[in-house]
Amino acid sequence: MKEVIATNDGPKAIGPYSQAIKANGFLFLSGQIAIDPVTNTLVSGDVSFQTDRVLKNLAGILKAAGSGLEKVVRSTVFLQNMTDFNGMNEVYSRYFSSEPPARSTVEVARLPKDVLVEIDVIALA
Questions:
Q1: Domains of the chain
Q2: Is-above-0.85 flag for pTM?
């Protein structure tokens, strides 16, 4: 059994996908980019600024599903350029300071709307 999670605390889906799916005690969140959910516009700024917005979006969706960042067990970080790793990691470490989740970080050729970072997570429901 699965439940679709939809909230105004994260950017609306811009394609045929859900913000998150709750299934079998887990939450599977779609990749989030630096879109302000209030204005539905892309925020500009460096990778640190964008990472902060992405993690706020993820936190909002998790909260709407009855979970939180402290329950994240796995994340994947997609960077437009691996030279941005330190800037992303510094912000990321503030959100996951205690018992951080397992993580992969990969450089990709291109991200939606040409953002610098996208992150998806799996969390306990």
A1: 2-124 (3.30.1330.40)
A2: yes
